[in-house]
Write a structure and sequence with these properties.
The protein is α/β, with parallel strands linked by helices. The chain has 9 helices and 5 strands; from the N terminus they run αβαβααβααααβαβ.
Length: 271
């Protein structure tokens, strides 16, 4: 009886594994390796939600540089940041100035100057590009639409998130642990939801107020992805992308399906 039970268990496991086995190869053989890394904005940001972080504090800057040392083991050849392509000449000049003088002071440093520049210096990356595309949208629409229908899930979701965030004690975590939370797959899914998908529960009868706002954020991110795809890459390039984590969440989805890119797990380097 026990042998029969064990045999049935093994049969079920093998069937499940067979179901999960890829049906076909969906990546180019020379797919470019990408480390897609999410962060909070370390300097000024117009975003509604911010993380308390003094970008001028020496200890904070040292902590960021320690993160850069960890990620430098990936050896990126190209750095991608959250800035518009129209500013590429300014970003590249500032980066070159930093390479010439790593002790230089920035008046308003952000994660670009603090993390991306230092990572690029350590890995000897010579190319840095911005891929942002600015588009406005109202992710607070859920609290503004009157006469909503089917909004129970929307309200319950935010109440649940608030409870769970308190358990994380995020504000008291070290920088490394904050970034581990930020890049956790479940947290990235949360960012997709809170910035877009959950808005589909916000509507008045016969209308799509929330869905239309969510579409704008999808629109912005897919345009950013298009900006990335316009950058010339060689098969031996290794790309590091540094953006606000909601964009990271979208890009993970895009890149999982893209034949051109092969995602690298950031937790291989966040030791």
């Amino acid at each position: 009886m026990n042998k029969l039970f064990l045999f049935l268990q093994l049969l079920i496991v093998s069937q499940l594994q067979a179901q999960q086995k890829p049906l076909y190869n969906d990546k180019f053989p020379d797919a470019v390796q990408v480390l897609n890394f999410g962060t909070f904005h370390m300097g000024y940001t117009p975003d509604a939600n911010t993380v308390e972080f003094d970008e001028h504090n020496k200890k904070n800057q040292e902590d960021v540089h320690e993160i850069a040392k960890m990620i430098a083991k990936f050896k990126p050849t190209i750095i991608i940041v959250e800035d518009v392509p129209e500013n590429n000449h300014l970003v590249q000049k500032a980066y070159q100035d930093y390479l010439n003088n790593p002790k230089m002071k920035f008046e308003h440093p952000s994660e670009i100057e603090l993390l991306a520049f230092e990572l690029g210096r350590l890995s000897k990356a010579t190319r840095i590009y911005g891929i942002d595309h600015q588009m406005g949208y109202n992710y607070m629409i859920g609290s503004q639409v009157k006469g909503k229908v089917n909004d129970d899930s929307y309200e319950k979701y935010f109440a649940m998130v608030e409870r769970e965030e308190k358990k994380l004690n995020y504000d008291n975590l070290s920088l490394l642990d904050k970034l581990k939370v930020t890049n956790h797959p479940q947290y990235l899914d949360f960012l997709l939801n809170v910035n877009a998908d959950i808005l589909t529960y916000v509507s008045t009868e016969g209308n799509f107020e929330g869905a239309d706002e969510a579409t704008k954020y999808y629109h912005r991110n897919i345009r950013m992805f298009s900006n990335l795809n316009q950058i010339e890459l060689k098969t031996d390039d290794r790309v590091f992308i540094l953006m606000g984590a909601s964009h990271t969440a979208f890009f993970n989805d895009f890149m999982k399906r893209s034949p051109r890119y092969k995602l690298v797990d950031p937790f291989l380097y966040l030791k």
